[in-house]
Specification:
single chain, 151 residues, alpha+beta, Small Protein B, Chain: A, 7-stranded antiparallel β-sheet, 4 helices, 36% strand, globular
Length: 151
């Protein structure tokens, strides 16, 4: 049973998800305790291959309140733990125009390891977002009608 710490709801709205990948994350000091408290923000974060390593940018993990002077920077770049073959494959896919790696959620596994679910995404156009909103509204109306007929 995994404990989901944070989700990136903006990613589901703004991007079309092509593929998702589970990766580990390299954390320092009291960042793990901060994560367990749910003090993480994935809003504008993204991942990119840099010097043959997968790096997570702009993920904000707030400092742990009870830690000492050894706090690390809250918006620092964090290394993602992946196999070389996965990094090479994703690097090839990211070279295509319009594709990006966005974190969807941060969670802890049964063994207590912090993991990030990354998604290979393509940005949605404005008309795609409108289409999704219209579809959601139609589904909601249908559910209401079905509930009214059951009564």
């Amino acid at each position: 049973m995994t404990k989901v710490v944070a989700t990136n709801r903006k990613a589901y709205r703004d991007y079309e998800i092509i593929e998702s990948i589970e990766t580990g994350i390299e954390l320092r000091g009291s960042e793990v305790k901060s994560l367990r408290e749910g003090r993480v923000n994935l809003e504008d974060s993204f991942a990119r291959v840099d010097n043959n390593e997968m790096i997570l940018f702009n993920a904000h993990i707030s400092p742990y309140a009870f830690s000492s002077y050894l706090n690390v920077e809250s918006a620092r770049q964090r290394k993602l733990l992946m196999h070389r073959a996965q990094i090479d494959r994703l690097h090839g896919q990211l070279s295509q125009k319009g594709l990006t790696l966005v974190p969807l959620k941060v969670y802890f596994t049964d063994k207590g390891l912090a993991k990030i679910e990354l998604a290979l995404c393509k940005g949605k156009k404005l008309y795609d977002k409108r289409h999704d909103i219209k579809k959601r509204e139609i589904d909601m109306k249908l559910r209401k009608e079905m509930n009214n007929r059951r009564k």
